[in-house]
């Protein structure tokens, strides 16, 4: 591992102590093999003048909710050293009291809550303190003979402490040791907390950071040396390559089973790089014993699910085991409420690692942790011996940790759902994709427009260039959605064209054929390919975009009217066929939506003139005299895909302001 220190870059953070603290904290955060997603913490001790001009010794500690990789000055909480030192002297202290007293001792009450390791940072007699959960330290210490390995690796350069609960208990443990030992006099460069992580310290930012890198590098080298000649986990090459159709269907089944246990739709990501497949296939029991560092259990639970041939039974077994683990460890304490019994990641033999999350971001965080866990445990193999489950349980059900997870915003209506929308580069299709994304869905948008990837990026969605009349590209796009997100729950079959107005006697055959192909047959083809996955969807829903024109046709629009009429019939048949699977199929009939590319100001002007109306009158020529916008359709489709329409199928919903030819 290399030091990332750079003089020029360091100077941009300021030469004061806090500026340097921000810089080297970010350097730690930049390396995922040191800290992942909010893990680790750092501090600096600064003598300042308070508001009244009195000198005050402060310990600036990483505030909770901040990530080392992106931390700013205001991410550090200024806590009075005197209060922290007094707390260290107390024989016991509850977590709630510790959090309260830390906040009371802050000179800026608006700063974030100080890390739960603030007392420990304060008692270490150096200006700068760096703490990480480095993979190499976990690999070194999470084994039967972890303590012995640390001594072999570092000799007397570090202090080795057995695992105790982080927070006050850990601070107290170190405080007692420091009463007897002088870290400076003994030239101790770091503290290794078995099965937890590493602390380094110094009076300047660079030395404390570079000591950290040096010690982690020593651990890496020791492990590498020891693993010489150990054959890597076996990898069956016949399993290589993209997952097959059967695998994708099974992935969707797995996601559905896990979502049911979690109580909400989950995004699922299949990680199937060769080493990930090898790990999932061959690691065996070692892969289920516990996390790299107790912190991870908050996001990943203690262990992953192991998926066998019977997917539902495998998820059920995980849930049963989790309930048993909860009962074993919660004892009689009434204040524990069991968390959901769903796995956060799974080892799927022959297929890879699958991570789950409420959103793509959450699933990616779990994927990162799972990937680092796999790489680290692979190095240790059968000797892997993480913390016993009672210690993990204490962290998983620690009120302070639980609070971290509860801070997020409330769930959106389509959170965790995957939506496939066709024809969404502009107009109604785009508005639908946008509404679904705003409500939390992970949208995959298909369109023939080559700009669709960029257009979808604007709303946090994935765009794929697809000609919906071709078979293979549609199949590939569906496979992509399932592979990347675990399944498909919402399908909005929207793509369509409006050919030029010609009466039957002069209409070109090609116009008719093309309209039927795009407005009707491509929808039927999409259904044939997507329905097997939608059957594994969560609260699944299919919505077609029809047209008011179906019930109120006009001259010169035979191809369009017929295609929309047939599409409506396709929707009704699909509703009949899919009702037993609890999949609802509905159609929305928009009318006179003018805020689309089709309607230039000029075209609007001409059409209005044909009716002898102003543009304003023309735009609102419906019973309610209201203008219908793309977003109105987007919001309606989003509602139709939501639980509001849970018991509605085969329905035709007009969004047209009311029409006297139809009512
Ligand atoms: Zn820690």
Structural domain tally: 4
Distance between the termini: 72 Å
Number of helices: 24
| Backbone shape | elongated
Helix content: 40-55%
List segments where confidence is low: pLDDT < 50 over at least 5 consecutive residues: 232-240
Instruction: Kindly provide the name of the CATH class of the largest domain.
Output: Alpha Beta
Largest sheet: 7 strands, mixed
CATH architecture of the largest domain: 3-Layer(aba) Sandwich
How many E-type strands? Answer: 18
**Cofactors, ions, other ligands:** zinc ion
Give an overview in words.
- The chain is α/β, with parallel strands linked by helices and 663 residues long.
- The strands form three sheets. Strands 3-2-1-4-7-6-5 form a seven-stranded mixed beta sheet.
- The radius of gyration is 30 Å and the shape is elongated.
- It starts with 6 loop residues before the first helix and ends in an 8-residue tail after the last strand.
- The model is unreliable at 232-240 (pLDDT under 50).
- Bound molecules: zinc ion (ZN).
- The site of zinc ion (ZN) has 6 residues, from loops.
- Residues 131, 133, 166, 196-197, 295 line the site of zinc ion (ZN).
Could you list some keywords that capture this structure?
663 residues, alpha/beta, L-fuculose-1-phosphate Aldolase, Rossmann fold, seven-stranded mixed β-sheet, seven-stranded parallel β-sheet, 24 helices, 44% helix, binds zinc ion
Fold topology:
Elements: H1 7-12, H2 17-29, E1 41-49, E2 55-62, E3 76-80, H3 81-89, H4 95-104, H5 118-123, E4 128-132, H6 135-141, H7 146-154, E5 158-161, H8 168-180, E6 190-193, E7 197-202, H9 205-226, H10 245-262, E8 267-271, H11 274-282, H12 297-300, E9 305-307, H13 311-330, E10 345-348, E11 352-357, H14 360-380, H15 389-396, H16 399-406, E12 418-422, H17 427-438, E13 442-447, H18 452-457, E14 462-465, H19 471-485, E15 490-493, H20 509-534, E16 541-545, H21 558-578, E17 584-590, H22 601-610, H23 615-619, H24 630-640, E18 652-655
Parallel strand pairs: 5-6, 9-10, 12-13, 12-15, 13-14, 15-16, 16-17, 17-18
Antiparallel strand pairs: 1-2, 1-4, 2-3, 4-7, 6-7, 8-11, 10-11
This protein binds zinc ion (ZN).
């Amino acid at each position: 591992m290399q030091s990332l220190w750079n003089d020029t870059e360091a100077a941009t953070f300021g030469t004061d102590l806090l500026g340097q603290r921000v810089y080297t904290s970010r350097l730690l955060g930049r390396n995922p093999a040191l800290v992942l997603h909010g893990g680790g913490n750092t501090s600096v001790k600064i003598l300042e003048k308070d508001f009244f001009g009195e000198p005050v010794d402060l310990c600036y500690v990483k505030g909770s909710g901040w990530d080392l990789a992106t931390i700013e000055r205001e991410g550090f909480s200024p806590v009075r050293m005197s209060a922290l030192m007094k707390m260290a002297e107390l024989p016991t202290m509850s977590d709630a009291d510790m959090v309260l007293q830390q906040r009371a001792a802050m000179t800026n009450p608006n700063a974030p809550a100080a890390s739960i390791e603030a007392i420990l940072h304060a008692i270490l007699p150096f200006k700068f303190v760096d703490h990480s959960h480095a993979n190499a330290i976990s690999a070194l210490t999470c084994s039967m003979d972890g303590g012995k390995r640390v001594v072999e690796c570092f000799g007397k350069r570090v202090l080795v402490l057995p695992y105790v609960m982080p927070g006050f208990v850990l601070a107290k443990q170190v405080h007692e040791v420091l009463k007897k030992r002088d870290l400076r006099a003994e030239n101790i460069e770091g503290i290794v907390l078995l099965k937890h992580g590493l602390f380094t310290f110094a009076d300047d930012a660079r030395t404390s950071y570079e000591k950290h890198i040096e010690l982690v590098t020593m651990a890496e080298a020791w492990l590498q040396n020891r693993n010489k000649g150990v054959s890597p986990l076996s990898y069956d090459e016949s399993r290589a390559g993209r997952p097959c159709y059967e695998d994708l269907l099974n992935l969707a089944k797995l996601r559905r089973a896990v979502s049911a246990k979690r109580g909400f739709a989950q995004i699922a990501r299949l990680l199937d790089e060769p080493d990930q497949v090898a790990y999932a296939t061959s690691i065996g029991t070692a892969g289920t014993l516990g996390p790299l560092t107790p912190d991870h259990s908050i996001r990943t639970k203690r262990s992953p699910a192991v998926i066998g041939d019977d997917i539902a039974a495998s998820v059920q077994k995980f849930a049963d085991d989790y309930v048993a683990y909860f009962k074993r460890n919660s004892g009689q304490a009434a204040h524990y409420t069991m968390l959901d019994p769903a796995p956060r990641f799974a080892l799927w033999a022959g297929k890879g690692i699958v991570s789950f999350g409420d959103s793509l971001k959450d699933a990616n965080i779990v994927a990162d942790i799972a990937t680092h866990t796999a790489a680290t445990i692979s190095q240790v193999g059968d000797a892997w011996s993480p913390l016993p489950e009672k210690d993990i349980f204490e962290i998983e059900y620690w009120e302070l940790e639980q609070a971290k997870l509860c801070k997020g915003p409330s769930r959106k209506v389509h959170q965790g759902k995957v939506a496939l929308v066709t024809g969404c580069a502009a107009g109604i299709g785009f508005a639908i994709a946008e509404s679904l994304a705003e409500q939390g869905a992970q949208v995959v948008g298909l369109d023939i427009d080559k700009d669709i990837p960029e257009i979808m990026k604007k709303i946090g969605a994935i765009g794929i260039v697809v000609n919906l009349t071709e078979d293979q590209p549609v199949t590939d796009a569906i496979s992509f959605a399932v592979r990347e997100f675990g399944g498909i729950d919402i399908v909005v079959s929207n793509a369509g064209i409006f050919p030029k107005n010609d009466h039957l006697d002069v209409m070109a055959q090609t116009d008719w054929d093309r309209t039927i192909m795009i407005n009707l047959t491509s929808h039927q083809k999409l259904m044939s390919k997507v329905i097997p996955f939608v059957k594994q969807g969560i609260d699944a829903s299919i919505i077609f975009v029809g047209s008011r024109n179906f019930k109120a046709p006009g001259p010169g629009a035979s191809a369009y009217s017929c295609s929309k009429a047939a599409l409506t019939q396709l929707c009704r048949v699909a509703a009949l066929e899919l009702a037993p699977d609890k999949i609802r199929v509905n159609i929305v009939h928009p009318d006179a939506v003018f805020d689309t590319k089709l309607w230039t100001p000029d075209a609007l002007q001409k059409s209005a003139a044909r009716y002898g109306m102003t543009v304003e009158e023309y735009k609102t020529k419906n019973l309610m005299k209201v203008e219908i916008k793309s977003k109105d359709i987007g919001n309606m489709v989003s509602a139709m895909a939501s639980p509001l329409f849970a018991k509605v199928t085969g329905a035709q919903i007009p969004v047209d302001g009311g029409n006297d030819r139809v009512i």
